[in-house]
Design goal:
Keywords: Leucine-rich repeat, Membrane, Repeat, Signal, Transmembrane, Transmembrane helix. By secondary structure, this protein is mainly beta. The protein contains 3 helices and 22 strands.
């Protein structure tokens, strides 16, 4: 009886292992830059806890063809800290694409064509910084950013987002910077930031949360929009189409360090806004303010 060559067994072992750990092939001869592993320049299949990948701490894939990040795409790497995926013609991320990444700190995905952020993609990851800048994001599932206990910085700028949800960020208590600039948001709805804390204690230092909503098409701020927040660091609302801000829209806010409302359509602002953020009078230029408003708050250089 003729014996089977050893290399056949090796090949079959590789195929069986790949099939077991990668339910679908995400990467097909894709060029990759990694740290923590030698001589890995291409990847086929998925990133999984094999001997040659266990020490990988950094994965970067730029300007390749990765149309969909499928289930099991990157999983089980105990030393992985950073994932950078840019300009890969990506259109979707399946739930379960990432898991068992106990030290993951940064996920950066830019210049792709993702339209929807689904539930089950980022939930439960230990990420501190999530950058989704300059994709084509239109829809974010209400639970997409839930149960992310370490998330501190979230970039959603330069997408096609039109609406904000007050369901985002359940059990995600550490968000300090939320960047939504350069989207197509039209309204700031009631209690939209109810799951975000306005102030955090980090290494015995009080840090206030910054929210950037500038360069959208915001026309309406609903009454109670900022309920559940008492303090904020930056609130950037410049370069929108805001015609009116009511005292009621400020909700429970008591202090805002820096508000920008320049380049809107405001005729005046409520006394309460000036009380909780006195510097606002310097950031009202390029609004059609009335003479009464200008004189009342001693505003100069408004146009």
């Amino acid at each position: 009886m003729q014996s089977t060559p050893v290399f056949v067994y090796i090949f079959l072992y590789f195929v069986i292992t790949l099939a077991t750990c990668c339910r679908e092939i995400t990467f097909d001869h894709v060029k990759v830059t990694v740290k923590g592993a030698k001589d890995i320049k291409n990847i086929t299949g998925c990133f999984q806890p094999s001997d040659h990948l266990l020490k990988v701490s950094y994965i970067q894939i730029i300007n390749e063809q990765v149309p969909v990040l499928k289930k099991d795409a990157i999983h089980g790497l105990p030393n992985l800290m950073d994932i950078i995926l840019e300009d890969n013609n990506m259109t979707d991320i399946e739930p379960g694409a990432f898991y068992n990444l106990t030290h993951l700190y940064l996920f950066k995905m830019r210049y792709n064509y993702i339209k929807t952020i689904r539930d089950g993609v980022f939930n439960g990851l230990p990420l501190k910084e999530l950058c989704l800048t300059n994709n084509s994001i239109e829809i974010i599932h209400p639970n997409a950013f839930d149960n992310m206990p370490n998330l501190t910085i979230l970039f959603l700028n330069e997408n096609k987002i039109t609406t904000l949800s007050n369901e985002w960020f359940k059990n995600t208590p550490k968000v300090v910077s939320l960047n939504l600039e350069k989207n197509y948001i039209t309204t700031i709805p009631f209690r939209v930031f109810q799951n975000i804390r306005g102030e955090h204690l980090v290494s015995d230092v009080h840090i206030r949360t910054n929210i950037m909503l500038n360069d959208n098409v915001i026309r309406k701020i609903e009454d109670g929009a900022f309920n559940c927040l008492e303090t904020l660091g930056w609130l950037f609302l410049h370069r929108n189409e805001i015609e009116d801000i009511s005292a009621e829209s400020l909700g429970s806010l008591k202090v805002i360090e820096w508000v920008r409302l320049d380049h809107n359509r405001l005729r005046c602002v409520p006394d309460r806004l000036v009380q909780i953020s006195p510097k606002i009078v310097y950031y009202l230029h390029s609004n059609p303010l009335t003479d009464m408003c200008i004189n009342k708050y001693n505003i100069t250089k408004v146009r």
